[in-house]
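[Meeting: bench + compute handoff]

Bench side (C.D.) handed over the final construct sequence. Compute side (W.E.) agreed to return the predicted structure before the next meeting so the bench team could plan truncations. Sequence as handed over:
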Amino acid sequence: MTDRPSDQPVPTRRRVLAFGAVGASAVVSIRPALAQTAGSLMTCQIPVPDRTGAAIAKDGSVVPAGTKGSFPGRTTPFTGEEVRRALAGGQLPGTNWESNQAYVKYIRRLQRGQGGFTCFASLQMPRG
C-alpha cells in the first residue's frame, strides 16, 4: 500500500531525470560564482584612510594629516589579499612595524559606510 493519494501523478522516469538535471545545472552555475567571489575578495581594495587630507594615529583612529606620531594616508589602497595576510600576522606592503600596526588597527575599525568596509567584511566571512 502507498501513502500517495490517488489523484497525485506517479513520477515518471523522465520527470525524475529532469529534476536531476535542474539540480546539476544549479551546482555547476553556483561553483563558478563562488570562485569569482573568492577572486574578487582578493582584488577588492581598502583605502587607508578612506578620505584625503587625513592620517592614521597609532591606535588606528583617523587624525588630521601632520598630526605628531601619525602615519600618512596611503596613496594606493591595499588589496584584500594584502589585508588578509596582514590580519593573519603578516605585514602590509610598504610599511614598517609601527605603521603596519596602525593601518591594521584602522582596517579592523572600519564600519559600514566607510570606504573598504565591504571588502574587509568579506574577508571576515568563513569560506566553505
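W.E. noted at the follow-up: The beta strands are 45-46, 54-56, 62-64, 71-72, 78-79. C.D. will use this when planning the next construct.
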